[in-house]
Design goal:
By secondary structure, the chain is an alpha+beta fold. It contains 18 helices and 26 strands. Strands 1, 2, 3, 4, 7, 8, 9, 17, 18, 22, 23, 24, 25 and 26 form a 14-stranded mixed beta sheet that branches. Strands 13-12-14-16-15 form a five-stranded mixed beta sheet, sandwiched between helices. A three-stranded mixed beta sheet has the order 20-19-21, with helices on one face. The radius of gyration is 28 Å and the shape is globular.
Length: 723
Amino acid sequence: MSDTTKEQARYAYPRYKVFIFGVEVTDDTIGITMNEHDGGAPNTCQITLLNEFDKYIITTDDMAAISKIPGGILNIPWMKGAQSNGQGPINTADKNSTTPTITSPRKAAILQTKNVVTQNVSISARSGPTGTPISDTNSTNYYGTSIKRYPMADGAPIFNSMDPVRVAMRDPFDPSRWYWHFSGFVSDMVDNTNENNVKTLTIVVEDPTKLFRYTRVFLNPGIIDAQAAITQEDLRAQTFFANFLRGLTLPEMFFTLFFGPDKAGTEKILQKNVSASGESNLSTKLRGIGHFALDSSSYFLFGPDAETVKEGDDNAESGLIDIKPPVNLGNDLQIWQSLIDHEVQPSDLYTMATEADRASSNNTILDRGDYITSNGGKLDIEGVIDWIGTHPQDYLVDGGRLMMLIPNSLGADNRKIVVEDIIQSYAMNSEWHSAGEIMQETVDRIQFIMYATPKGDVVIEPPLYDFNPNDFGIAQMSADKLIDTLPKSKPGTSNASTELIAGERMFRGNPRGPYGTNYVIRTRDTYNWESAFVDEKVYTMAICPHSIVQQWESVGNTSIIGDLAVVKLLDLIPLYGVRPVPIEPRGFLNSREGATLFASITLNKLNADSHTCNISHVPNIALWINRPLYVEGRNFIGTTKQLTQTITWGASGDMSTTTDLYAVRTWNGQVAKNNPTEPIFTTIGGQGSKPLDYSILWKKAVVPAKDKGDVARNSDLLTPFTF
C-alpha cells in the first residue's frame, strides 16, 4: 500500500514561492521543511538554498567592494602569493580597480540596500563596563557616530537574523489554490560545503511568536531604533506589579499584552491596581509586542444564546467593550476557519497590510487589487503572493492580527471562576517576566491553544478535540457570508476611520472551504500510521486543593490551609481502578468551583495524551493544528497536535505530510438517537470519561444512548459548571 500511495503522490504538481528580505529565492530553493505544533515554542521552517559561487555568502571580494577598498591592496601576510578566487573585483585582472563592484546582481541589490541602513547614535551615549564614556578612551577611533542595522562580515550570509520571510505553497492536487506556508523571521543559518564543493545555505525561520520570549512586559523587541534605547525607568524591577493583570477579562489580558494598555483601552484599569495590601494608582509603562495590528484584531464568541453586554454593566468586559465589541459566530465553525484560514485570497492585499496602510485616506491599497483581474477577469493569485512577498515593508510578518475564539459560556457569569480563580490566582509578576511566559501560562491553565498561522496572525482558541470534521463545513461557503459576519467599526469611536473590511471589492475571489474534507485522511492516501495507547497516562480521579482562609498571601503555604475538590471519572474506574492524581495549582484557588474546574481541565489534558497516533500521508497543506482529523484506516478521530510538511526538489525529491494526533476518539458501537447511521466517537470509557466536553457548548453534539434508547442528559456529561 505504501509504495502505491507514494507513486500516486508523485503525480501531484507541487510548487512554491520563497521570499527572504523581499527578494524571491524560489529558483535556488531545493528543500522546505515546516514544523507546526500547539506548544509554547514558535513554529519553525527550514529552507535549503543552493549556494554555488557563494551567491548568498559575503566573500572577501564583496567585503572590499562594500568598503570601497581598491582591488589588490589588502595586506594579509600569511596569504602572500595567494590569488583571489576571481569571483569579485579583487583579482589579478583588476588589481588597480578603484571602483570595486559586486558581480552578482541579486547579492549586490541586497548588500547595497542593507549597507546604507544606519542609525545615528552619539559616541557619548556609549560607555564601557565601568561607565567610562567611549569618547574618553583610546578606542574612540573604532567607534563611529552611526551604527549599521545589518552587520556584515567576510564569510557571513547576505541575510541577517530578523530578516522577514514568507513562503507560499500551491496545492499539489488543485493547482488553482495557493496557501501561505510560513511567515516569520530568520533565526539560524548554516553555511555548508561538502567534499564535492557543493555549497548550500540552510536557513531556519521562526514565526512571529519568536518575539514573545524577548518581550519583557515593559519592553517591545519590535523596536529597532537604537536611539530609543530603553530608559532606566523601564529597566527598573517593578515589583509592585505582582498581579498587574488582576481585574482584566481574558480578551483584555491578551489585548493589553499584545498592544499595550494605552491602545487596548485598559490603561484606566491598570492604573488602579488593587492588591491584598491595598489600592494604589500607578502609571504603567507596558508596551506592545512587535507591530501586530489592533485595528483588524478581534475576539469572537461561539456557542448558543450569546448575550449582548450592556454598557455600564458591572459584569461587562469593560475596557475593550467600547472599541472591540465581541463578534458572535453562533455555532458556525466554518466562518471561524474562514477568518483565520491560510489560503491565499485577493483580500490579503488589504487585510495583511500594515495598519497605517489601511488607515490611509487614499485608495492606493485598494488599487493593488486591480491587476489581479487583468487576465480576462481571471484571478491571478500568484500576483497577490508576489506583491506581498516583495513588499515586506508594507506587509510586516509581525504585523498580523490577534484572533481569539472564546466559548460564550466564558462570559460574565463565569468570569470569577475562570479568570479570577484560575488564571489570576497565579501570581503573574511583571518583574522581568516575558509577555510570552505570561500568555503561555494563561492559556495553559485553561487548556486553550495559542499558535501563529502561516499568514502571521496569532490565534487563541479552546482545544477542538470534541468535534468532527463536518463541524467545519463539507461544502463551500460564499465570501458574502464572511463579509456579513466581519465586524465593522462603530461610528463615533476611535477607529471609525479604519474599517475592518474594505467592502466586497477586496473580498471577491474563491469561495471559502470546504474545510471538513481537508480533515480526512483516507486509507489510499496513507503511507503508514502508528497508533499507540499508553496505560500509565490514564487517570480516573483528580484532587485539587483550594483555600478557605482569607488573606492567604501572608501564610506562604497553601497546602496546609486548603480544602479539596475532587473530580471522578466513574466510567473508567471499573477498568483502571482508582488512579488519583494530585493537582498542585501554581498559585492559589479561592473557591471549590475554581478548584473543580481546574482539576477537570488538568484531567482532560492528562488523559488526552494516553491515546495518540502518528500518520505519514500524501501532502495536505490545507491541514492545520488543533483540528479534528478522521483516519479512515482505523475509523477514529484525533486532534492534530503537530504537523511536519516536507518538500525536497530534485531527481530523488519527494513531498509528504506527517501528522501527530492526540485525544483520539474511537467508535464503541453507539449511534445518534435521531440518526442510527451516525456513529458517536468517544474517548475510552465513553462520554462519561470526559469531565469537560467542549462540543456541548454548541448544543449540537448528539448525546449517545446509554441503554436501550435511554438518552443521557447534558448534565450527565458535564460537571455543574458550564465552561
